[in-house]
Fold these 2 entries.
Entry 1:
Amino acid sequence: MHELAITESVVAAVAERVGTARVLRVQLEIGKLSGVVPASVRFCFDVCTRGTALAGARLEVVETPGRARCRDCGRSVELEALLGLCACGSADLELLEGQQLKIREVEVV
Amino acid sequence: MCATCGCADAPDHDHGHHEHAENPAPATRILRLEQDVLAKNDRLADHNRGWLEERGALAINLVSAPGAGKTTLLERTIRDLGDELRIAVIEGDQATERDAERIRAAGGRVVQITTGTGCHLDAEMVAQALLVLAPAAGAVVMIENVGNLVCPALFDLGEHAKVVVASVTEGEDKPLKYPHVFQAARLMLLNKVDLLPHLSFDVERCVSYARRVNPELRIVALSATRGDGLENWYAWLRDELRARARRDEEREGLP
């Protein structure tokens, strides 16, 4: 359950950036191929934020799709999982997007 | 101090200059951070890599499911190469010093990290362990991660290569089921091949699954107990060390 460590990193990074402000909302970007499960992050978020500047903050998760380029036919392929196939049948895909794990923005008061 | 507006003036001063709404909505601000969640770990990992490189050391992050034979492989490697290479080990487990005791008995320098409930090592744990381990110049630092094919894939420790150990007593389809870690690895060791006569494990199929996930993956089949294929693993290690040393020379050669 690496999502606990991931969520702790999010809370620590945000707390460091906002100083004395109170955080109302955190927007995370979790790529579909990142290996991180949004539901698990949500589960950990309330626990990890307790007693921090993020206590009570709302967590927004933007899930970004996986995208690859087929090395055989050059087509762009949307991926739901790390392993996928191009419409041409090739599995030789160059991953372009979907592995990101980012804190996009926070709303503070 | 004025109790209404908190200013330093007398309490009875006029508030016409600003309004006190019944329930004033506090002004919120949006901070665009665009920050990588693992940025701190990655920074520490780069620091570890730099620290190791200053000592001419090579670090290998060994990952596998529990019971694939990481510790047995390290014991054997230390016994076979102990005179040739300076091997130092960082052992990661949730609990106990048992693995560290085994490595010590085999003659290796070792530091044990116990992660408690943690399911993987991170760069900060390794940074602290490296200070205690104090590997010799030109050493090979073997970092045995917590037995787990999921979480260790995401955390860079500052290693030069991830090596994934799979064993023939597991399913052939491990690479398909845990693609992240097989994709992050440079070498896969397929262990326990001495047991193949007793199993229905299809080596070719496992290799093709692994290559499907990571076409660049090097694969060595071996038995850490009987010794099959170990020379190929040792040759890979020597190549990595030579490549490391060459990079150092090139860097020193720069003006």
Entry 2:
Amino acid sequence: MYWVSVFTEAAIFAILALGLDVVWGWGGDFDLAFYGYLAIGSYMTFVLSIGKPTPPVEYILGWHLPVLIAIVLAVVVVVCVAAVVGAIALRNLRGIYFAVTTLGAVSALYLLVENYTPLFDGYNGVYGLINPGQTALNLTYNGYRIVFLVIVLVLLFLSYLLVQRLSRSPFGRMVRSVREDERAAAAYGRQIFFTKYRAYLFGAALAGLTGGLFAIFISAFNPSAWTPEELLLIYAAILAGGRGNPRGVILGVFVVYIGFIELTRYLPSPASRPDFGPALRQVLIGLMIILVLRFRPEGIFRERPGLDTGQGPVSRPRQGRVEVLTTPEGQAADDGGPG
Amino acid sequence: MTNFLVTIGVGLATAAILALSAVAFTLEYAVSRIANFAHGEFLTIGAYVAYSTQGIFHQNVAAAAAIAAAAGMVAGLLLNTLVIEQFRGRSAITVLIATLGVALVAENVLDMIYGAANVTYSYAQGSLHHVGPFLWTTSDIEVIVSALVVAGLIYLLLQRTRFGKAIRAVSQDRALARVSGIPARRIIMGTWALAGAVAGFAGFALAATIGTFGPLLGFNFLLLTITATVAGGLGRPYATLGGALIVGLAIQIAGTYTSSAYELVFAFLLLVLLMLFRPNGVFVRRSSVTVRA
């Protein structure tokens, strides 16, 4: 059962990473608010489905909706929040300014949630979504965990198909062309802000879905579950796997989560210092980020060159093999080559 | 009214530490054109070194401050040599992510050495003094005076020395500075040493003021530092001092009239608003150009 739980967690984070990769890998925007969307998705799923709070616990809404509807509504709320943050941060801030703004937004949100208890019960957080549907499906505890893993894997596969399809679509090429050269893309009639904005909202929606799944998976959520370190781990996974390449991203999450975390779980921790092992693991993750960025920034699978190009040579020569692909329809010039 | 003035006084003490940290951050940005997200670790390292050596120096403030600054200087030199210079020519955002990785490493190394729990670092706060309309403790006054002195020294350094002139040249155009015979690498190295020392000292001042701190001391202060820097305008040392003053006072006033738990919420909302309306700082006329770095 241990491995079922490990794989479930990795698969949930793989969906999150796919969403983040649309924002960062394709759009080139280093978003530090992203983990906040998972958190809002998770909190909203709880407060929409677990019913009224019993004092002294307090949180908003306290509805008693079926969990599926709760997740859908949670995704809607997440997209609304992302719409506000994105409208501020994406309009004319790029690079480090974008990163700093999103960090400011998520930090304000974090401190608000932690200190303002009527919202999501502050530091204690919300809990109580324990195996929804277990009795309805007439499953044992273990059976339920396995069914949940299958559901998460199916959702991961569907997200992968969607992202992969989007990646090859005119929209995917457009997002990348805007990343490569905003002026050229604008000259070709692309709306810079709306292109980025739509990619951002799509990524946030996937984060909201992940939040809902995470709520079911861990049955409790509080501020210690969404510290900045967690997000850095997702970025490390995307970097290692291959930024901009959906298959690489999924592989990266499984490598980092299962390979890295499970292997380092057995790091020695003296009994007097239980946090020694986890701290050492964070050190290794930090080092991995620096080394991958320095020596192999494209990751295990590089972003497919040629996806974002029309006929003719690729716009940005890369090291090593250069592929020139033409779209089957032969309409490349019409839908978003950067020129 | 008296309450308000006391608030302003406390705000000035906060602003003084913030100003030191922000000036260091902006100097780093000026010469290397990167946002150093490991900047907070300079403060943390300074604080921890002062804490570890308190047995040796007892309550000698000057010695503790000096050793914190020296530790920060070493950290600055190491970061520049081992990371920043290795990423030369890469985009600013790539370096930002790398420094975020450095922050993660530094925080957790400190965690492994000292543990995640807070340590107590107490300095006698001294007695209360009425200075004009303000009410300050002795250590508040020491912090404010030392911040003013450091700011003054940095001003003299930048304006009156060859080194300062070279820093200004490199921050405007590294290639052009090199063509003119300025050893850009060494100047940048020197700037990081200076920035690290100032930040390490700020870390000591912060720790001595707060009293208890943990490995996240600096990272939690980073966003406040960035807010102050952005308020002044990235890469502009003198304007940054003004930015720190504005941010320090604003959070103190907002915190007093609502609840101190929300101080930082206001600070970060202020950051978002600044980015929205004045991304180049409050002292510059609004520009409509896309901001990128």
